[in-house]
């Protein structure tokens, strides 16, 4: 994933994460039970948090790219965060809206993508030469 794509996706995912949080607070409050609302808010929280991380990694990659330095592993981290948000938050949203509960078995795959994204940042940090 390129830095430009990461920045655009961070903006979109951040925007929709805030919209999801607002929808959960106002649109779902009287339509679902407290447990489902908690599930929804978990999805929105993780989406918003990782959209900011995606933006940070994309800006980091943009800075390195401007200096002619490689950014391949940054692209891997960004891709993992996007996949993680889509799978983790997406399945939580779907479950809350009445999707099959079996999606709960898929949700951890999104969490693993998010964890792998964070570990990729650790590797990037270890590779820094200063």
Please describe what this structure looks like.
This protein has 130 residues and is mainly alpha-helical. 80% of the residues lie in helices and 0% in strands. The chain contains 4 helices and no strands. The protein has helices at residues 3-27, 34-66, 72-96, 107-127. The longest helix is centred in the middle third of the chain and has 33 residues, at 34-66. The radius of gyration is 16 Å and the shape is elongated.
Summarize the structure.
The protein is an all-alpha fold and 130 residues long.
The H-and-E topology, N to C, reads as HHHH
Quaternary class: single chain
Major beta-sheet overview: none
Shape: elongated
- How much helical structure, as a percent, in the residues? over 70%
Number of helices: 4
Structural class: mainly alpha
Straight-line N-to-C gap? 25 Å
- Low-pLDDT regions: none
Strand content: under 5%
Question: Strand tally, please?
Answer: 0
Mean pLDDT: 95
Provide the gyration radius in Å: 16 Å
